[in-house]
Every structure is written in C-alpha cells, then in structure tokens.
Amino acid sequence: MKWVYGINLILLITSCVGWESNQGGSKYRLRLEDSSAKVLTQADVMNVIDWIALDTSEVAILGDISKIETYENTYYVLDKVIRKSIFVFDEQGKFLRRIGRIGQGPGEYIHIYDFAIDRKKGHIAILTDASTVYLYDLQGNFITSKQVDKSLLWNITSMDHGYLLSSNHQTYVEGENAYLLYAFDSDLNTIGKWVHVLPFQMPTMPLMSSSLQSVDGNAYYCDVFANGIYQYDNKADSVMKVYDVQFTYPLPDEIKVDLMTFMSKQRDYDYLYEMAVAEKGKIMLHYICRGEFNFAVVSDGVILQQGHYQGRFPKVFHGSDGEFVSPISVEEYIEYWKEQEMKLYTDSVGIEDNFLLLRWKLK
Which of the listed ranges 63-77, 174-188, 252-266 does the model predict with the highest average pLDDT? Predict the structure, then answer.
C-alpha cells in the first residue's frame, strides 16, 4: 500500500462543543486488531462481475471521481475536483448528460462538495458552499436551492423521506447547532440534529470514499475521528450508534488534529480507513494497524471475514443488487489492475481514455 495521501483540501476550523465520549452508548463494541496471520488478496475478497469503460468523448472525460451513485441502470458520477459537476452514463458507459456547473447564474455554484439522488421524487441534490443544497430533476434542470443550516455541512445522502448530512467535526458553530449529523425532510426542512462534535480542530483527511451511505432504506455514517458507525432510518427521532470501534493503538487527539503530524506518524497507530455498506446490514471495513492494511466484513456485531490485505484497494461505492462500483483510472489499470488474477477488461486501454468502472460483489 502507498502511504502518501493526496491533499485536496486542508481546512482547520475550531469546534467549541464538549464531546460526550460515549454519545449515548452503542449497539455493538467492535474490536479491530492486526490480522496479519491471514493474508487476503483481491481474489479472496472480490467477485468481479464486469468492467465498464466510460465514454471517451471530450464532454465526458473526467479529471477525478469523488462519488458514484447507481440509479435505474444509470451511473451518476461526481467529479468535484476538476470538472465540478455530475456526469451521467448509461450501463454501457455512454455519456448522457451533465448536471450542475460552476458559475453565478441560476442553478450554478462556486464549489461542489457532494450529491445524492432522491429516488422517490426523482431529484438530484447537490451540496455546495454555505451548506446550500441545489435541487435538479434527473435531466439536470434546476428546480430550487436552499441554505439548510448555518453550520458547515460537507456530505449528503438520501433516503425515502429525506436527507442526512454531516459536518465531519468541521464546524465553527457553537451550542445547539454544533452537531455531527443533520436530518432534513425531502423539502429540506430540519428534522433533527444529533451527536456533539469533537472540541478540537479537525482537518479534512482524504481517507474515505464516502463517509455517508444509504442502503436498504437506512443511512450510515462512519466517524473516522471518534471511531464510530451510526445508522439512521429516517423515521426515528435520533441516530443509533451501531458500532463503537476499539483499537489497540488508537490515534491520540494531538495526532488527529494536525494533518501533517498525522501523515508523518500514521504508521504508529490504528484507525479506520474505508467503509462500504452492503445489503442486510453487512459492513465492509478497511483499517490500519500500525502500518498494516487490514480488511474485515462485519454483520450484527460479528466479524465474518478478516485478514491482512495485500495489494491496492480502490474507492468503493454501493451499486445495485448487492454490487459495489469502483472507479479505476487508466493509469491505475495499466500499472496495477491488469496484472491481477481476476476478470480483466478485454479491450485495449490507452492513456488518454476515460475511467473504467469495476463492478464487483463481496465473496
């Protein structure tokens, strides 16, 4: 595994609310330790279904992929770093349309942080500056926008009856507004705010593909700073802490709050690296134990599979029918993936081509 993290954004903002250490308790306490006694590779973990080559036309070329959502055999792909829009592709990878763009006119924004699909109303919700949500229809026509809160919100996911957003412990708001998770109905009216943020300056460490995910009508949030996994079903009046993750060498607070210190000391401690939720509450976790990359699959508090992971693991996004979707750049494919003992993309790949999407299931 490579131990250099790209820094897309460094934002240090003071949070002034005390931390309730147990946050009301958790359903399961999960102990994650070094599992180097068992070595896992892609072949042990991934059942590859197919590779999809995304359209190589000029209007479809992506500079980066930050998120993928699958809906009605269509892929909605977020490039928030370079193109700063959502690009829509069909199941064969053909480019269909672009949703949202930079500007100052109606339906335009300065930055894009995240997006979600309201499958019940057929809306695309784009989260932008100042915790403002822009709504579009599935064809990309602008509907409306609304600032949903004064706190700083960075991630969004959608369920049947609304949205869940997260501050990721990066908010300057004090008192009643300084929370980690914020729920809104489908019209962007506030439902509730839960879990006090940490009282420290937290950087945006670019570790997780997606800290907020929705599966089977539930939303899940992975808190990499306090080692907790939360669940919200859009009906309850609060979130539930499903897992309190325990490590042997957890990151000290002074390491968490300084990105450069973390990058220099990361091999000395244990921490969560990635989460992906499958159907029926099964959760896939990648975590670091003193420089070693470990993999685990858990369900109802039980570890179903665990081992030291050997090789590179891609970004992971929830697909349809129990699948996951992982974006692979052509450089990554040529340099690494085509050499693996797994189902390969059969056509030729050139350095100027667009991303490949890897469809797979857990074994």
Answer: 63-77
The single-letter DSSP state of residue 271 is E
Q: Is the pLDDT of residue 10 over 50?
A: no
Q: How far apart are CA 208 and CA 271, in angstroms?
A: 12
- CA distance to 53, 56, 181, per residue, from 50 (Å): 10, 18, 35
Burial class (CB in 10 A: 0-12, 13-18, 19+), 239: buried
CA distance 179 to 304: 32
**DSSP state letter for 154:** -
Taking all residues of the chain, what is their mean pLDDT, rounded to a whole number? 88
3 state DSSP class of 29: strand
User: 3-class SS at 173?
Assistant: coil
pLDDT at 259: 82
Could you tell me whether strands 39-40 and 302-309 are parallel, antiparallel, or unpaired per DSSP bridges?
A: parallel
C-alpha span between 1 and 89 (Å, rounded): 31
3-class DSSP assignment, residue 330: helix
Helix spans in the chain (H)? 42-45, 253-256, 259-265, 330-335
- The yes-or-no verdict on residue 67 having pLDDT over 70 is yes
Instruction: List 283's β-bridge partners, or say none.
Output: 277, 298
**pLDDT for residue 184 is more than 60:** yes
For the residues of 82-150, what is the DSSP string, one character each?
TT-EEEEEETT--EEEEE-EESSSTTEES-EEEEEEETTTTEEEEEEGGGEEEEEETT--EEEEEE--S
Between CA 22 and CA 161 the distance in angstroms is 28
To the question of pTM greater than 0.70 for the whole model, the response is: yes
The answer to whether residues 248 and 289 touch, using CB atoms and an 8 Å cutoff, is: yes
Higher pLDDT, 201 or 69: 69
Instruction: Determine the pLDDT at residue 26.
Output: 84
Cα separations in angstroms, 106 against 103, 110, 124: 9, 12, 15
Provide long-range contacts, Cβ within 8 A and 24+ apart, for 101-108: 106/142, 107/134, 107/136, 107/142, 107/145
> What order do you get walking across the sheet with 74-79 strand by strand?
67-71, 74-79, 85-90, 95-99
